[in-house]
Amino acid sequence: ESKEMSEPKPLEEEAYDMSGARLALTLCVTKARKGSEADLDALKSMFDHLRFNSTMKRDPTAQQFQDEMEKFQQVIDSWEEPVSCAFVVLMAHGDEGILMGEDGETVQLDDLFQVLNNKNCKALRAKPKVFIVQACRGVHKDLGETVGGDEVTLITNDGPYTIPTYTDFLHVYSTVEGFISYRQEEDGSCFIQTLVKVFRDRLGSILELLTEVTRLMAEEELLHEGRLRKVNPEIQSTLRKKLYLQ
Q1: Which fold has domain 21-237?
Q2: What is the pTM of this model?
Q3: Catalytically active residues, by annotation
Q4: Which of 30, 83, 157, 183 is the most buried (most CB within 10 A)?
Q5: Whose CA is closest to 232, among 206, 212, 246, 204?
């Protein structure tokens, strides 16, 4: 006999507690990156709007990228009130998995990410850690394709429980692996400007907002070297709950 299939149940809505402090660090190489100042201005307004305690450092060397991350981790771990979440924005020239400091030396993104993991940053254990990376990830250029003929450790009641080392991260890249990331000399980067606009003006969980950023960017046509190009962000998430910034 065939058993009746049970109706799917809606997902439980569990959200991160955002009542504590929100801390942000922006590390931006501006040299030979015209438009960076427009991006920094937009990010500052977004962090103010979302009530983040925000620090910005211009033109870090490769070593300073690492040093500033470690300093940020110490600030978070010694914060006088509970911390709810941390944002890190990294803007530089780069290639897959690496950023280039102001001195032309390189730093591994993974080395920067792991400074805030559940092992290394106790105050952010099980709390959301969002990395936004505005950098090239290679040299490929996307001309676009035609679609359909149109151009387009915690304590519970039961005692302590453990969580994996690498949970509660959200990595948002301005482009997919292997591809160039674009910046306008006056207006800043399409990615940062679109992200800031959506995060300021729209309501929803962060993954819903980032889906909207991806939709808007997929509609954009960017002129580069006399040809129209496409670019879209990439989102990698190990978040365990919904993250609401509003």
Answers
A1: Rossmann fold (3.40.50)
A2: 0.86
A3: 93, 136
A4: 183
A5: 212
